[in-house]
Fold these 2 entries.
Entry 1:
Amino acid sequence: MGTLNKGMGLTRRDMLFRSANGFGALALAAMLAEDAAATDRSLDPLLVRTPHFAPKAKSVIFLFMDGGPSHVDTFDPKPRLREENGKPLPLKLPRTANASNTTLLGSFWDFNKNGQCGMEISELFPNLAGCADDLCVIRSMVSDFSEHTAGNYFMHSGSALQGRPSLGAWVTYGLGSPSKNLPGFIVLDSGMIPPGGLDVFSSGFLPASYQGTLFRKGKHPVADIAPRETNPELQRNKLGLLSKLDQRARQRYGAVDELEAAIHNYELAFKMQSEVPDLVDFSNETQATRRMYGLDEPDTGEFGRQCLIARRLVERGVRFIELLSPKRQGVDRWDQHGRIKHGLATNCKATDRPIAGLIKDLKSRGLLDETLLVWGGEFGRTPTSQGRGYANVGRDHHPWGFTMWMAGGGAKGGYIHGATDEYGYYAVEDKVHVHDLHATILHLLGIDHERLTFHFSGRDMRLTDVHGNVVEALIA
């Protein structure tokens, strides 16, 4: 061991010896920091984590219009489609398209210019039209699948296969959630679960704590968290005993994902017992707010309630919220193969006012800038007709060119991106693939989609697989 020479400071040998120990200490400190981070995540899977770069959005509200809204009747006007109504489609069909659907069907509804941007929106959305300057409309979306189940999996997870992590699961895995008393990924059920079932909101191969938690409609959205005991102290003691038993099992068998998730869920469920009743209690909301969401109207009350809950979840720090289509009597989601004149109008009326109210409410509270809203289905509808007769005619599934929109959270308001052809059949300008949409959503949250990975099945997996580009034109 080197010695310190009196009056001479450090010798060269002393300096090298002490520096070597210092470099070792730096390495040790880094290793301990990694271990601590891993420990923190295991104890609290939703611990807030630092994004890759400064985010524009802090949370996401995904307004999923299950079934596939017709773009040519809502946000993508096609005058030529009306002019040539009833004539054969003069385009070559994709190999996977229904060859019997070749008769053009013009829209039943007029389009009007709205906002300072002059955005054309269907008369089906009179309230949402008032938010035109906040909307970032993508008219050139494309997907790879024209069947509901595969399309739903693909829109949510970037894969048509069952068992892959949903977008909400990836977001909460990457960023955690600021909310301490609620899950990080919540799905608000308005009456219909999309084809593909609850696996559409699955955590897949990610830890189970990141899967979507389903909130049913009504006054008791999460039945499983209802306390079994009226005495809070007794309830805490029972949960404490469960926690001790789980901790012993963890010590005996090691860290097991399902066990870790169960322990975390017990603790979270106890917190939710006091949080959820307040979440769905609207008694302190003003009459103006109730009108804005259409809470007291028969056509809009159900979905308006879900939209208001979404705002409240954002205020409570929930990272990712998904709203499902409301169930309307005699209407099959947004899947209008027939009776589109009735079905599409019914769906639009049920959602128009609540969604517009949500945008305006978030904006008035200073939350729209940090909350990204995404609207759309798994695909669009054909510009050609399906069925016969004015009352029964509808449109088929259509992934080759359709519309989605974003608002808030760093998306460019009052902007239309891309275009379909004159009939609305193919996306022909600035195509945005589902992988590109996912990459852009993650980017707005401060996440590099190529760096958000999870090692599974021998390789690093990611939401966008080996695809996807951030669409910079969509970002304000």
Entry 2:
Amino acid sequence: MERPSERIAALRGAIPEGVALLAVSKFHPAGAIEDAYEGGQRLFGESRVQELAVKARELPGDIRWHFIGHLQTNKVRQAVEWASVIESIDSLRLLRAVDAEARKAGKRVDVLLQVHVAREETKFGFLPEEMEAAAVEAAGMEGVRVTGVMGMASNTDDMERVRSDFRKIRGCFDALKAGVMSGREEFAVVSMGMSHDWREAVECGSTLVRIGSDIFGERV
């Protein structure tokens, strides 16, 4: 089996310029992350706060950790401590909690607003029509900086449905960029696409793809 660094090199050759690669390292050991790091990877994604904290303490300090899982408000303090970006801001309650903890810590945390367009009720996020109000509230906060949006397509083999979902996510970003987030250069990230659908996501305007199994293999 190819090493993570070799798989990342192959992916970088396939992913267009201007699209960032987030290596989703959740449930994978530090050794695998170290190999990817030695191959030049610096963006890694985790979905459990405790696992993120352990790895961030062990691994090089210039790694930028993205928190990509559903974040409970009682775990916000640790997430703020260790994550460079919290991608999964899925409610006003969570947004306010992250802002409060970041201000207590004297920090400003980059966040993405998670938009819900998928068919599954189990997925989290703001509905497209709720995104503007969330961005307006976030724009007045001192502890968070909204740098873009994140979303997931429906879990289906119907790739036209997947593309439709991705176009809706990109549409939410474009609407905010033209409206409430106009003139904010930091608002530039559209995080969508995973191992099985990143090509469709890029086709529909993703600027950051979250790839796990195609780099690290199946979860341990």
